[in-house]
Amino acid sequence: MSGGSQGERPGVHRALHARHRAVLPDWLALYYDEPLELTHGEGRYVWDAEGRRYLDFFGGILTTMTAHALPEVTKAVAEQAGRVLHTSTLYLNRPMVELAERVAALSGIPDARVFFTTSGTEANDAALLLATTYRRSNQVLAMRNSYHGRSFSTVGITGNRTWSPTSLSPLQTLYVHGGVRSRGPFAHLDDAEFIEACVADLTDVRGQTGGEVAALIAEPVQGVGGFTSPPDGLYAAFREVLQRHGILWISDEVQTGWGRTGDHFWGWQAHGAAGPPDMLTFAKGIGNGMSVGGVVARAEIMNCLDANSISTFGGSPVTMAAANANLGYLLEHDLQSNARRVGGLLLERLRAASAGLGVVREVRGRGLMAGIELVVPGTDTPSAEAASYVLEAAREGGVLIGKGGGHSTCSVLRIAPPLTLTVAEAEEGAAVLGRALRAADSAM
Q1: What H or E segment, with its residue span, contains residue 373?
Q2: How far apart are CA 155 and CA 318, in angstroms?
Q3: Does the global pTM surpass 0.85?
Q4: Which of 136, 142, 192, 418 is the most buried (most CB within 10 A)?
């Protein structure tokens, strides 16, 4: 799997790590006991500074959506960079208009308008600004165990304490049950009863607010929270309650958008019985590594701001060119279907590999978005130690994965390869992860 160690330079990564620690914040997290420097990639593989090859099952946190060094994207970037790198939104920008037209049409939101940002954090921040302005309220409903970004406002609505460094916020946030199916007070219920209980909780929480509520923001599949999700239809049931009170629904599609779940192009479509969301936010995969994010909203919501605004770097000609090329490749090659087919196979292999292991509580996910929750064997107690063990063992086996989870545990392995993953690569990666899980089960 490693592809050999040609060009190995012992100690190089340790020196870079020391330099990193000398000039960057202590809270800037790094994976692995000996952090990796990745120098280049191709397809679903990346190489480190010592020449070792890895199968990339995390894609830069679900950002390398199609493939590393995808020729169509690199060509589009180079050609646009050769014309003009930057102009800002003060000038007409053909690549931005073209991408906005495509995203608006794909969004499912009627009379849609698109505002581009540079990240998912900024996209969610903009959505909160729009919602609170439109509704003239700073009250927001969010899901327990959620993650929406690292800015002051998005930290304020994040329900996962691991990623929330301050309790201060410009928003009044109330948290609702439903984002985690297999834990919590409603876990024992069947799907219909679970939805009914969560709707009752939403209704009760709304009744505790001091007037109007701006919006409910929710990830269809919680990303940082460990790839957890409710039964299909939960947010459709929520939507019926929200609509009665004029509350907006913001679907955070930063990790679920563009077909990654296989079954749907957007995560909200698993909950679409009551119609599309009022807003959706996106980022990560659309740029295939370039800094692209954005908000899609109905025109009346998007146009509610009564002050001037621009975006210096949002909608950059180069990032828009990359996103247009990447989206075109994804649609032309029907990568959503590939995510469903190969992702289904990968989940089957991971479940088979985990069968009988006390360290594995649950294998969950859909499409190429799989989570493996680890526990202390013989208990229901999340095990961050086991997750770290498997992370290291998988790296030794030549596979890079991520981790996450709720309640400050980071006990869930997060697996999200590029959407061009082949059957052979899925089999290869699952075999490595199976060995790592068995080793962890013995060690714990």
Answers
A1: strand 370-374
A2: 29
A3: yes
A4: 418
